[in-house]
Design brief:
The chain is of the alpha+beta class. Helix content is 54%, strand content 16%. One of its GO terms (cellular component) is plasma membrane.
Length: 494
């Protein structure tokens, strides 16, 4: 169906309709004029012959005429046409004779007869009876002076067989001329459509190429018509887009490099600061209360800063394509239990995990730990208990095996305006909230870790209240290897 609405089809149909309408109108006008000419010529010839013959034979009549004389007059008029297809009726008062005995002259209408009785003018009418058209002529016979009515009325019926044949031939010729006209119109439409659609197809191909990232695509500009102007405008837009994207990519690369450099440079002083704060924390109990409070605040902020620097370094590795997977065959349920135990969340989280060794897969244990820790920590900080961690397997035996990890909380859920942005870096749903407990990168790092595994992560709200985060990790080695290769290629070919 989309092809039937294409520009080529519309051009061909438009040309065909215009050609068909033109041929029909031209044929109709030509047919009408030709038909009128044929019939007019035939009619004039018949009336002239009838008037000439009547004027020649009328002086020999005695008025009032006898029936025999009147019949001879009718036969003389009918003999005007050698083909013998004239039928004549002559009337004088109530006396009526015909050139053919017993002819009832069914073609003669009362209106035509009344017109002849009331006027000396020659009248005519075309009458169609039994599928045949005939010309009926009526006239009054005058005396030699041409002004006095003799009382004789002559009626003539002539079949229009020859004229009808001419008309039928005209119809046939018109029909035969219409078909070649339509064929020629379609051929012209195809040629025109080809000329119009060639630059349109080139524009479509170039647009797709731009959409696929080949920003150096340009169109060849030929001619000076509207399509050439469109191609020129496309080239200008493509050049401007290429320049803008190159500038944005440069800015993005510089920003990433800056974040990576800053994070790297901060690690050394932070390590020293952390060592000092550890010593101060040990001696905080022996310090005065104000000093102890300041020491603890410095220690807490140093820990937060160190976590932020670590997260920035992790994001920088993803951006640089240096986030390599170190796969290992592990018990996924046992890995999740260790994540909860290492952070003291065993009593805070309801774990719905399969039995030991029931679900094993090749994953990166460290990255899986980061994914689960970020999601559970996010649920504990921003949601409400009970928080549920659930691990299941999805997929049919003959299809892809998936490990499905769900983290559900019982909090207020995620606003609908925030849901599309929860995995963005440093996204804050409240612009006035400038301080957060985390770095603002936890969910972004989670999404990157899931992506390098070839999996997916999504956030939603539960019908009963609370948020739910769902992670799906493929467990097939081939897919994991491809995901790692794709991640490296996207990050810079490493």
């Amino acid at each position: 169906m989309p092809q039937l609405r294409g520009l080529r089809i519309r051009l061909v149909v438009a040309f065909a309709l215009v050609a068909g309408l033109t041929a029909a109108v031209t044929g109709a006008l030509t047919f009408r004029e030709a038909r009128t000419g044929v019939l007019q010529q035939s009619q004039d010839a018949v009336i002239t012959q009838l008037r000439t013959q009547a004027d020649r034979l009328a002086p020999g009549l005695v008025v009032p005429p006898r029936p025999a004389e009147l019949r001879q007059f009718a036969l003389g008029l009918a003999a005007t046409q050698p083909a013998g297809n004239w039928r004549v009726m002559v009337t004088y008062g109530d006396l009526i004779v015909t050139s053919e005995a017993g002819d009832r002259f069914a073609e003669l209408t009362p209106a035509l007869r009344a017109a002849v009785d009331s006027s000396r003018a020659t009248v005519f009418q075309r009458v169609r009876t039994r599928g045949h058209t005939s010309l009926v002529v009526g006239m009054s016979v005058t005396f030699a002076d041409g002004a006095t009515d003799s009382g004789l009325h002559v009626f003539l019926t002539v079949p229009q067989t020859t004229e009808q044949a001419y008309v039928d031939a005209l119809v046939t010729a018109t029909e035969r001329a219409t078909v070649p006209a339509l064929v020629l119109a379609v051929l012209l439409a195809l040629l025109a459509a080809r000329g119009v659609l060639r630059p349109v197809r080139a524009l479509r191909t170039a647009t797709r190429s731009i959409a696929e990232g080949r920003l150096d695509t340009r169109l060849a500009v030929d001619g000076s018509d509207e399509l050439a102007d469109l191609s020129h405008t496309f080239n200008e837009a493509a050049a401007a887009l290429e320049e803008s994207v190159a500038e944005l990519r440069g800015m993005e690369a510089r920003a990433r490099r800056f974040a990576a450099d800053v994070s790297h440079e901060l690690r050394t002083p932070l390590a020293a600061m952390s060592a000092v704060t550890d010593v101060l924390d040990e001696d905080a109990a022996r310090l005065d209360p104000d000093t102890a409070t300041a020491v603890r605040l410095i220690s807490e902020e140093t820990v937060k800063l160190a976590r932020l620097v670590d997260d920035l370094m992790e994001i920088s590795r993803f951006d640089a394509g240096a986030a390599a997977l170190h796969l290992d065959e592990i018990d996924l349920a046992e890995s999740l239990r260790r994540t909860l135990a290492a952070r003291g969340w065993t009593d805070l989280v309801d774990a719905e995990l399969p039995p030991p060794d029931a679900l094993r897969g090749r994953v990166d244990p460290r990255r899986l730990d980061v994914v689960v820790a970020n999601l559970v920590g996010n649920a504990l900080r921003h949601g409400a208990r009970p928080v549920v961690l659930r691990l299941t397997e999805a997929g049919r035996p003959t299809a892809e095996r998936l490990a499905v990890i769900e983290v559900r909380d019982s909090g207020p859920g995620i606003p609908d305006t925030v849901l599309p942005h929860v995995f963005e870096r440093f996204y804050k749903s409240d612009a006035a909230r400038t301080r957060t407990e985390g770095s603002g990168l936890g969910l972004a790092i989670t999404a990157e870790n899931v992506r390098v595994h070839g999996g997916t992560v999504r956030a939603a709200n539960r019908a009963g209240g609370g948020a739910v985060f769902t992670v799906e990790l493929p467990l097939r080695n081939e897919q994991l290897s491809r995901a790692q290769a794709d991640a490296s290629a996207r990050g810079g070919g490493r």
